[in-house]
Amino acid sequence: MSIVCLLSKKAWVFFFFLMDKFFLFSIHMHKYVMDAAALFHKDENL
What we know:
The chain has 46 residues and is an all-alpha fold. Helices cover 96% and strands 0% of the residues. The chain crosses the membrane at residues 12-30.
């Protein structure tokens, strides 16, 4: 019972760690995509 409890706790910590990394990554990607789109539209207007 205790082993399963420990494993599930580790799994949750790992899951939240991955979600946190993915969340930060998606925010950065959104920023890069927006910057690229802004540059593209700037070139398009010129």
